[in-house]
Specification:
Number of helices: 17
Mean pLDDT: 88
Largest sheet: 8 strands, mixed
Distance between the termini: 10 Å
Shape: globular
Radius of gyration: 24 Å
CATH architecture of the largest domain: Roll
CATH topology of the largest domain: Dipeptide-binding Protein, domain 3
Low-confidence stretches: 1-30, 298-303
Length: about 600
């Protein structure tokens, strides 16, 4: 479903504030000339996020905010087109794949330079080369980044496991052909490996920067430069990189913007107020309670000329769920997990708490959206609201009417009131149906993530945004072969510590199958098994309501929250553009 409204809420302009007084770097555009027709340089885009980033060091990026910030500073071999999800060249100028899908060869650009920084000779960023690719992937295969290594490279890259274990001094599947050519050889055929290379975690970094700053490095080769602000828990400014290598289709240098201002504001209602007072350019994830009000108040004014605000609704490649700790009581009992699933009315949550912003999670972890039209959802039986069956299962598990059930804590993260509202409703429904009390604990996203890795809570709120447009990305979080046996060791992304040999076998078969239909057959069968065993409670599939000023051009609200701000520019709508948009609205686009 794709709905786009052009709403003249008010005459608004984009805020023009720049970096703080402590910012480093030149954010001016005095060397860049806009022609007023095809090129529009300058201005500040202010983007709002619920929480600050947890880490913008590429190999530790795990949350959406960190993803958005890090991908402005760093570039990988390839990147996504945010409009189509197709891959396009980034640091690599081109690439080839052999017929067996086991060898990927990349030709690097010769004009990619790292940001100027004291870590480089003379303070000038040097040209990126094949040695930087080698350094990056060897670092990813080190013990320090074990979690990303296990999920991203171990399944694919030949020789990665030997290098990680210390039995080899190099990765046999990573070959430097020459200074600007690298070849990856895989253990088995894979059409997904290329998507791993588009993730922020595999962004190419410089050894000098890592040696000097370690995980605190902010030096990349991306379109924007990091600046030092007064309080990075509230604001972050990035300024344009004057030496960025990428150009638009007309040969004009990117990025267009002078700077990006990330504002970290927990309250969606505060975000909306700031948007309405011209202090925010883009607001994502609008509070569901405000959607109907925003639309109803402006329904008669959609066609005013010119529109000043755009409201865009997109289904996301994202699923909201609660994870159960499957290795310890009480959720090591299958019937307890199933009872909890049947005790929750997902339709009521979507209608009453989310005000229709999303669709009930009545299937599996993979959202049923148009992107996955060739996926057989009919095989997957989810959980509907069935209080009688829920009580029966709980009794069979040894807890009739909740008697003797241990105290449990539901851990949720701060940031946006929706998590607390949903948790409170789930707690109410569980208590009403099963007679079980749940304590709700709110912590920072960073702490919640750390706690879930070590199973410090019996049940916890989570979500998964696809790393690439395939059911494989969602099913990867339930893969059990890399789950440690000891609770003293962290488990990620399978924080549920769910293990099932049949599931893992089918998942592995899907990963190495090139034919899309057969590949998805394996994945659907694996998902069917997993949902029957209920290591998670799927709640809803998200939809994103994003509102932005009509002067913001080149921005694409998309289901993977890919934010390519290098191609965003600011320009008022012309009369001709307004007329064209009116035609689209009439046509139902």
């Amino acid at each position: 479903m794709k709905i786009k409204y052009f709403i003249p809420l008010m005459v608004i302009g984009l805020i023009g504030c720049g970096p703080t007084e402590e910012a480093e770097g030149d954010g001016s555009n005095n060397k860049r000339v806009s022609d007023g027709e095809t090129v529009f340089y300058g201005g500040t885009l202010k983007v709002c996020e619920d929480e600050t980033y947890s880490s913008i060091f590429p190999m530790e990026v795990v949350d959406v905010t960190s993803f958005k910030v890090a991908t402005q500073i760093h570039d990988g071999l390839v990147e996504y087109d945010p409009k189509t999800f197709n891959l396009r060249s980034a640091v690599a100028e081109k690439w080839t794949v052999n017929d067996a899908s086991t060898e990927y060869t990349f030709t690097l650009r010769n004009d990619v330079k790292f940001h100027d920084d004291a870590c480089f000779s003379g303070g000038k960023g040097r040209t990126l080369n094949a040695q930087d690719v080698k350094f990056t992937f060897e670092l990813l295969c080190s013990k320090e980044y074990e979690l990303n290594y296990k999920s991203l490279l171990k399944p694919y890259l030949k020789g990665a496991e030997e290098f990680f274990n210390g039995t080899a001094d190099h990765i046999s599947g990573l070959e430097i052909v020459d200074d600007h050519t690298v070849k990856f050889t895989l253990k088995k055929p894979s059409t997904s490996f290329i998507y791993v290379l588009a993730m922020p975690n595999t962004s190419i970094i410089a050894k000098e920067a890592f040696d000097k700053y370690g995980k605190n490095m902010t030096v990349g080769c991306g379109p924007f430069l990091f600046t030092k602000g007064k309080d990075l828990t509230k604001d972050l400014f990035l300024v344009y990189n004057p030496k960025y290598y990428q150009k638009d289709e007309n040969g004009n240098s990117l990025p267009y913007l002078d700077s990006i201002h990330f504002a970290f504001i927990p309250s969606k209602f505060t975000q909306l107020e700031e948007f309405n007072s011209d202090e925010i350019s883009i607001i994502e994830g609008l509070p569901s309670a405000k959607i109907a009000q925003v639309v109803s108040e402006n329904i008669e004014n959609f066609k005013n000329t010119p529109p000043k605000t755009i409201l865009d609704r997109q289904p996301e490649l994202s699923t909201q769920y609660y994870g159960f700790t499957c290795t310890t009581e009480p959720f090591n009992n299958l019937k307890v997990r199933q009872a909890f699933n049947y005790a929750v009315d997902r339709v009521a949550i979507v209608n009453n708490i989310l005000n229709g912003q999303g669709s009930p999670g009545t299937k599996g972890i993979t959202p049923k959206i148009p992107t996955f039209n060739n996926y057989d959802f009919s095989r997957i039986k989810g959980y509907s609201f069935d209080p009688a069956l829920a009580r029966q299962l709980l009794a069979e598990a040894g807890y009739p009417n909740g008697e003797g059930f241990p105290e449990i804590t539901l851990e949720i993260n701060l940031g946006g009131s929706v998590h607390k509202l949903v948790a409170t409703e789930v707690e109410r429904q569980i208590n009403q149906t099963l007679g079980i009390n749940i304590s709700i604990d709110q912590v920072s996203f960073k702490n919640k993530l750390e706690h879930s890795r070590y199973d410090n809570s019996e049940i916890y709120r989570s979500a998964w945004v696809a790393d690439y447009p395939s059911p494989e990305s969602f099913l990867s979080i339930l893969y059990g072969e890399e789950v440690p046996n000891s609770m003293e060791e962290p488990s990620f992304p399978n924080t549920m510590r769910y293990k099932n040999a049949a599931y893992d076998s089918l998942y592995n078969l899907g990963k190495v199958t090139v034919d899309v239909i057969k590949r998805n057959d394996y994945f659907a069968e694996a998902e069917k098994i997993m949902m029957e065993e209920a290591p998670i409670m799927v709640l809803w599939y998200t939809e994103n309501y994003t509102m932005y000023h009509s002067q913001v051009r080149g921005f694409y609200n998309n289901g993977m929250q890919i934010a390519d701000f290098s191609r965003v520019y600011l320009k008022e709508m012309t009369a001709e553009e307004v007329a064209e948009q009116e035609k689209k609205i009439k046509g139902g686009s």
